[in-house]
Amino acid sequence: MPKPSLRTRLLSYQIDSTLPLVGAALRRSAAQGLIRMARGGDGEATRILAENLAQFPDGEIGQSIRDGLARLAHPGSRDALWAVWKKTRHLELERLAIQIGEPASENSDFETRLLSALKLGQVQFASRIGPSRLPLLLAACRDGDPAIAAAAREAAGKLSNARTIKALCFAWVSERSTLLTDLMAAGKYTTSEPPAVKMLTRLLQNPADLQIDAENVVSLVAALSDPMPEIAARAGYAIRHLQDQPAIDKLCALWEKDRHTDLGDILIQSQYTASAPPELRLLTLLKTGQVELARASHAKWLPLLLEAAHNNDAAIQETARAALQNLKRKDSREALCELAVTGEQPLARELAVTAGYRPENPEACARFLFLTGQWEAYENLDFDQRLMRAIYEISSTEIRQKIARQIQTSGRTSYLSILAGVDYRSPTATITEEEAQILIHTLAENQEWERLWGLTQALALPQAVQIVRLLAKNQWTPASEADAMTYQKLVLLLQNPIALSKEELGATLSAVFSEELEAILPAALPLAKLKVTGRVNSVAFAPDQPHLAIGVSARKVVRWDYQHGQIVKLISRFGHSVGQVAFTDDGTLVCGERTNNSSVCSIYAQRRDTLVRLGEHNGSVTGLEGVGAQQAISAGRDGRVILWDTETGQKVAETVLSNRNWARDMAIAPSRNQAVMLYEGIQSVALPSMGLSPSYAPLPIRILGSESRKWESSMLRQAVFTPDEAHLIVGYNNGRVVQCQGLPRRGQKYTYRDLSEFKSPVSGLQFIPGHDVLVMAWDCGNMEFWRNLNPNTRRQSYSPIGRITSLHISPDGAFMATGSDEASLMLWDLRTYDIPEIFQKPLAGVRPGNLPGIMSLAQSKNLSPSVQNALKFLQILLEQRFRYDIQLSEIAQIQPGDYDIIIEEDEEA
After folding, report:
1. What is the pLDDT at residue 741?
2. Which of 220, 225, 430, 810 is 20 to 30 A from 366 via CA?
3. What is the DSSP string of 661-727?
4. Residue 725, by phi and psi: left (phi above 0), alpha (psi -120 to 50) or beta?
5. pTM over the 0.85 mark
């Protein structure tokens, strides 16, 4: 509002004048001046007149002011008059404003405009208000002036702005006052969003065509507990008369989630069932008691029916059980019988038996009757146990255990034939410890000693010892003379301490690499020492015979039969020392020469006793490996890497290492798809394409004991891939062994993990085939054996013949050879790693090839007497078992002892 002028302030002062003598004149003069100004549109003058009207209820001045205000024509003056009336609600001002008959103009504040319009009964203006001014209209509905309140309520019932109607709906949902309810009813207002408000406003209006779809079910359920009884009642009626199936499905899903009692009652009263998913449909059928439909359930829904039969809801539980006991479909009845015997479902068994269900198939029926204890019916069907014996032999371990337990608890000794009739001597037979104990106990209780003795050739060692003790306690002896001799050996052995408990034989031996067992099972068992005249340059195990190829400096190769301790063949005709020997997978021997100058060195293959020259390198052959049945790869001092076909004698492919490098050694991936060349750096060769990877500098490693980021480099001496080829194990000249995350790649940070270290060059790295055991060897003679690359499984050994210059493991993982600088070889037996498994598995599955390792260990002085006795016990049993199967002399083994291999040396060419 503009600041009053000086004249206006002066007249305002004069109209309130109380000066003697001149005061009345000043008041009359001021009133006339203000009237003139008000007629000219001066709002401030109008306000002063309106506010002072009460001072002059009678008399000339008062009448003059009334006449002046009654003839106001200017909007500014009228606005001022309405503003004073809104503030004071003076009746005289109200009469004058009504007499004028025009509401406040748009230049006034909105509340004055609204009240003036309502006072004059002009409701159309009020019905068009926006949502932000709805509170003013609602306040006017509660105004103390009946005329204003009535006009405001009439306007509120005729709102035309959709957003204002929505705001009114929200206000009603929040407040729920009688006034707002009346206004909502008067205007029949509803809103389309959000769903909760939409549902409440529609229920308030109670339309005859109220349709509920799936989107509105949640809001309808919420309305069931509305504080307004009429809303809750209408929601209850609507939810019980749903016509839309998706809406019914939604309601069923809400019930299934919370299992609310009221919703459950609604489902029952209205017989609502879901159409999908099938699980919910079945549950609602059960809840609503529709047993006939539940009886027709497909077999695949039986687990749900059984689960429902345990439901906390009594109605669901009762209907489910009634349906299960009266199933319509044959496949469902047979499926319930199957669940009764294969699953952990006591209720399935109870219901199937009570209902009298039986499978049609005789074998399935016999199994069902047997495992549910229906003995009379079972014996009528399978009087000689023929069916159950067949079932037992072909059943899974779980079912066999159930059958065995049922035999044990039945107390019927006639059923022993079901267990004792199984051929446990079969190498493919399997038996659990629990199953074995049941078999032993039942046979012993029935005094079937001969059958019990026969099981010593089939069960695991602990059970075999248990059986022999039982037989000895009952003073029984086998009828066969050969069996009686074996039996007496076993009984005599049992007079000594023998490791038998699960902790001693099972759990302990399965942890072969624990520190506690270092004195029990050696990491490798040294058996033979070969002393060779001249220098041993290379060694390789044949894949198909117990032969060892030894390349020596005397330009010869010796094929040594380590099983019989003799030379099989001496191969000569070489032009230089033989520096490399290897075998291909088909048993072809490949040899490579070495020299101390740049002379040509040849590659040879021995096929069918014929030595064939394949090709050559300029300078020594520095690496040679078989990479398949008829292929070998060689690397030479000339930097070339060549792939050879040993059958045709042809070169398959060739490549040259980068930057004039030459390989000091190589490592072949287990998949035979790549070879790693080691020199001052590292380079990978793809097989058989011979594609080269980039050349990498020596892999840097952090200096041990250094807290700063200091690195050192060392020559790469050895490398081996892990069996899964995910990692590369690398040995350095400085004695460190590290684990790399695959091969290095350009642009990737090199990462490694330290494994072990001795202050001596690494001379051998190899995994034992068939066992995830890494063997590491150093020149100083130390060896370490790690399982799963875990330092907690580390076991150590030491070469008894000096420095280790090389390490080789046979393809089957049974034997190991270590070379030394004393022109000698040590041969080791690695079959100790098979022993833990042999102790824990049934003897029926033990192979003849395991016996020599057991025999070697049984004679070892490194074993405790109790474990040594257990091995001897096992040896006696296996010798008895294999006495007709195989000649033990034919089984590959190392002939213990010291051997001198004399080779006549030739002069170096």
Report:
1. 80
2. 430
3. ---SEEEE-TTSSEEEEESSSEEEEETTT-PBPPPBPPPPEEPTT--SS-EE---EEEEEE-TTSS-
4. left
5. no
For residue 664, the domain's CATH number is 2.130.10.10
In a domain, 272, yes or no: no
624 C-beta neighbours (distance < 10 Å), count: 23
Q: Are 694 and 686 within 8 A, CB to CB?
A: no
Mean pLDDT computed over every residue of the chain: 84
Q: Which of 766, 789, 812 is the last residue of a domain?
A: 789
Strand partners, 806: 819
User: Among residues 94, 114, 92, which one has the least CA distance to residue 104?
Assistant: 114
Place of tokens 């302990």: 508
Cα–Cα dist 901/558, whole Å: 9
Q: Is the pLDDT of residue 514 over 50?
A: no
For residue 446, the model assigns a pLDDT of 73
Token pair of 216 as six digits: 């509105």
152 has a pLDDT exceeding 70: yes
Q: Where does a domain end: 749, 767, 789?
A: 789
Q: Which of 624, 632, 588, 587 is CA-nearest to residue 606?
A: 588
Q: Which residues are 538's β-sheet partners?
A: 551
CA distance 556 to 606: 13
High-pLDDT (> 90) share of the chain, %: 39
The domain tally of the chain equals 2
Q: In the structure, what pLDDT confidence band is assigned to residue 519 with cuts at 50, 70 and 90? A: very low
Calculate ∠ Cα 808-764-580, nearest 5°.
55
Question: Cis (ω within 30 of 0) for the bond into 277?
Answer: yes
Sequence-distant (≥ 6) Cβ neighbours of residue 209 within 8 angstroms? none
- Paired with 819 in beta bridges are 806, 825
Q: Can you tell me the mean pLDDT for 323-341? A: 91
Residues 6+ apart with CB under 8 A from 816: 524, 775, 807, 808, 809, 810, 827, 828, 830
Residue pLDDT, tens place only, 827-862: 998 887 877 777 777 887 777 777 777 887 787 776
pLDDT in tens, 385-412: 888 888 887 788 888 888 888 887 776 7
Banded model confidence at residue 580, pLDDT cuts 50, 70, 90: very high
Same domain, 641 and 666: yes
Q: What is the pLDDT of residues 299-322, one digit of tens each?
A: 888 888 988 888 888 888 999 899
The reply to whether 348 falls in a domain is: no
> Considering the domain boundaries, does residue 871 fall inside one?
yes
The token pair that represents 371 in the structure block: 């495992």
Q: 632 and 728: one domain?
A: yes
Range of the domain at 720: 536-556+575-789
pLDDT score recorded for residue 431: 66
Direct distance between the N- and C-terminal alpha carbons of the chain, in angstroms, rounded to an integer: 124
What is the side-by-side strand order in the sheet with 650-656?
621-626, 631-636, 640-645, 650-656
What's the rounded Cα separation, in Å, for the pair 419 and 395? 12
Is 808 among the domain residues? yes
Give the β-pairing of 736-740 and 728-732.
antiparallel
Give the pLDDT band (50/70/90) at residue 356: very high
**Mean per-residue pLDDT for 588-597?**
94
Asked if 859 and 892 sit in the same domain, the reply is yes
pLDDT tens, residue by residue, 881-906: 887 665 555 667 788 889 988 887 55
Token pair in block for residue 543:
């894949």
Locate the DSSP E strands across 277-352: none
- 690 and 596 together in one domain: yes
Distance CA 603, CA 591 (A): 6
Query: Does 515 lie in the same domain as 599?
Result: no
The answer on 684 and 567 residing in a single domain is no
Q: Measuring CA to CA, which residue among 485, 601, 495 is closest to residue 551? A: 601
Distance CA 435, CA 431 (A): 6
626 in the same domain as 700: yes
